[in-house]
Amino acid sequence: MPILEAQALTKTFRRPDKDSGFKGAVRHLMQRKYKNYTAVDGIDLSIEAGESVAYVGPNGAGKSTTVKLLTGILRPSEGTVRVMGRDPHVERIANAHDIGVLFGQRTQLWWDLPVEESLKLLKHMYGVSDADYKRRIERFDELLDLNEFMPALARTLSLGQRMRADLACALIHDPKMVYLDEPTIGLDISVKDRLRAFLRELVNDGTTLLLTSHDLADIEEVCERIVVIDKGAVAYDGSIERLKAHYITTKAVNLYLEGAANVPELAEKFPDYEWTAGEAPSEVVVTYESNRFTTAEVLGSLTAQLSPRDLSLSEPSIEDVIRRLYAGELTK
Amino acid sequence: MADTQTPAIAVPVRHVFAIYWRTWFAQIRSIVEYPADLWVMASAGAVWNILQFAFLAVLFANVPDVAGWGYHEMLLLSGLLSVAGGCNALFWDGAWSTGAMVIKGDIDYRITRPAPVIIQVGSSHIGMQSIGEVVFGVAMMVYGWIGAGIGFAAIPIGVLAIACAAVIQSALVTALCAVNFWIKGQASIFAFLMIELQGNAMKMPLGIFPIAVRLVAMFIVPVAFINFVPVAVVTGHMSAWWLAGIPAAVVGSVLLAAGVYRLGLRAYDSAGH
Amino acid sequence: MSHSIAVDRALVVISFKRRLAYKSHWFFGLAIGGGSMLIAMVMWQNLIGSGTLSGYDWDSMRAYTIIGFVAATMVFGAADWIMADRILDGHIAVDLTKPVDFQRARAAEYVGSMLSTFPTAVMGVVAAWLLFQPPGPATPLAGLLTVVSFLLMFPLAFGLTYLSTLVCFWTKRYLGIMWLREALLSFFSGLMIPLAFMPGWLQAVAWALPFPHFTTTPSAIYLGRVDTAGALGLLAAEAAWAVGLWVLGWLVFRTAVKKVTVHGG
């Protein structure tokens, strides 16, 4: 049985429909008009225990709304959510013991209290035993260097420290199902690396993870499965490997020629490849299908006939695939 | 609250109290971090109360009574009102942040924790003006109590009245602050409207107002049970039977607050998407 | 600094429009102010009846209460939080980089927000006039001078509010400061109870402060409790306070702004 199951999950918000400015406000006062806005539109999602799922999509695609529906913060307009067999909104308290949540944009630390105090309040709220608490704090300290800022007031923390403290808060009760909404947002590279290592460890220990992020490195390093949503609906759901194998069918070479590149002329000369202009006048991008030609073949033919000043190979990334998924170029 | 829909797994009351007090004590310890604010707030509360005292002293230098109520009786009325407001600020000030939390999406985390949301919000802040309000409010009450010659026998009633006043005041404020789940805004304007009008009207004997006002203050928004009814009973202006109305007002206002909050959480749509 | 009248006017207009857009401000200003006015009316009617108290009969007390309502609406309805927040959240650092005098700019905004209380004040006064039919001004000249005293309330209210928001340079929150100011203003202006009811020493304390000009001065002029010379004297005192607070605000700001470099949210 899946640990999390959502069926035909839909959330519609009602928004006031008013023009900006004073006149708009007055007109809205006279005749109240509203627009319905569907943020999540019939999403089906099933996650097995131990899976690590990346949940990605462009801004406004409905990622955060989905997380809020799955965690019981919002009530679905239609459809159902079951986490370990429970409706998270109706059986809120029982569900709360099993889930850990982090919203990267917001903190759950008590603003005017030391970090340690916040963690102790949560320990008490979740009914964590002294021994478990001690053990987990030690482990978090090992991986996240918590002790460095345990006595500091939450309001004085740097963003990286705050995020690490918030992660400890989300995991202090050893939840089975963890939701992380943009856990690396605004962090510098070194903190990101540290956080990712921590999350990998978490997944290896068997915690089920749902992670949203705009940083695809988070996803590639931590998750096995990826769910792409766009305009509130699932655009892709499957393993990251399969996504790559399935969609990354082309490779590209950047050529830097001696003089200005004449793209139409080159395209005529090598009709098997696709030619596009590069950033500089002398630069040109050659795209070829990786199942028809080997890179050696392509480079051989190009260097023999064009003798470029320099060249570079670009490995198409998952980022490109997802960009194309967002743009609607690819279909399921 | 959503959790009350499933009685089988509701949080034990003792655990809820423990969570509340732990949070409250943690805040108390943090207050000393900003001594300037502590003193500004505490003196604001104190000055406000001293001026209420001064108002009555000035008024009674000019008039012998207000609708049959003497100086010391009116001091009791004002004092109990201040103590009720002060207790709200001391023990339940977080309720005032409901609107701001709704706008900022700060209710989110609280929904994902295994404790009633209303408890987490209520205990999230301490209004330091309460120190001045409670101390000077009690001083007014004691002075009025002795001056009115009420005696020791009624002291238990007075203590109980303070406790009930604090609960009714906090519950009514909570219910009105929860309106911000629907009408979005940083400021808790409905609760603010209530305490402003209550602060002006309820320091007077209710009898001077038209019947409609009296009915509203007794039965619709039962602010009369916070200070007027208990003071009127101990000073002999009302029959002791009215005391029975106080626990009823406590239960009614608490149920109202919990109910409005629960409906509010159902309607909660979080900030951003 | 190239701070022109045009800048002032623009700031007044923006602030006025911004406040006016919040329809809830109108409603709650009217509900709170109007409610408080009705409560005061009930109290004084009950206390005065057909007699007089400290020289006020029921007729003059009705006018007094309405004047108090207008003053309270103007001074409590203005946007003091915007000033305080700029200091508390560190926005002031941005303001200081602009070619605009900080105090003048805040004054223009404050005046704009005070003007936005106009609809509330007018609605309240019209309703009160119909309900209570207060007496007119003692003389036409007294009426005119009452209007002048209300106009002087603009710079006076700004000076007082500006000074109190500057305290935020030394605290983390504004709420307590606001309460303190409002409490003192309510009492020493005569809004809670006319100054004439107070013992001599307390009246002396009140008149040593800027607060009486928020209710006592306009009502004393309107009701003819002072003659024309007295009225002019009161207006001169009010104007002197406005100027004095402006200068004091300028001095305090100069000291306070030295802290700005390290002040943050």
Can you put this structure into words, describing what you see?
The complex is a heterotrimer of chains A (332), B (273) and C (265). Chain A has 332 residues and is of the alpha/beta class. Chain A folds into 2 domains: 49-70 and 85-245, P-loop containing nucleotide triphosphate hydrolases (Rossmann fold), CATH 3.40.50.300; 249-315, Alpha-Beta Plaits, CATH 3.30.70. Chain A has helices spanning 21-30, 63-70, 92-98, 115-126, 130-144, 159-171, 189-204, 216-222, 240-247, 263-269, 295-306, 318-326; strands at residues 4-16, 34-47, 52-56, 78-83, 99-103, 177-181, 208-212, 225-230, 233-239, 250-256, 274-277, 283-289, 310-314. In chain A, the strands form 3 sheets. Chain A has a 6-stranded mixed β-sheet, with helices on both faces. A 4-stranded antiparallel β-sheet of chain A has the order 11-12-10-13, covered by helices on one side. Chain A has a 3-stranded antiparallel β-sheet with strand order 2-1-4. The two termini of chain A are 26 Å apart. The model of chain A has no long low-confidence stretch (mean pLDDT 88). The longest helix of chain B has 28 residues, at 35-62. Chain B is mainly α. Chain B is built from 12 helices and no strands. Chain B has helices at residues 13-31, 35-62, 71-92, 98-104, 107-111, 117-122, 129-147, 155-177, 189-201, 211-220, 228-234, 245-267. The relative contact order of chain B is 0.15. Chain C has one domain. Chain C is 72% helix and 2% strand. Chain C is built from 12 helices and 2 strands; from the N terminus they run ααββαααααααααα. In chain C, strands 1-2 form a two-stranded antiparallel sheet. Chains in contact: A-B, A-C, B-C. The interface between A and B is large, with 38 and 36 residues. Chain A: It comes from Glycomyces algeriensis. Chain A: Residues 4-256 form the ABC transporter domain. Chain A: It is a peripheral membrane protein.
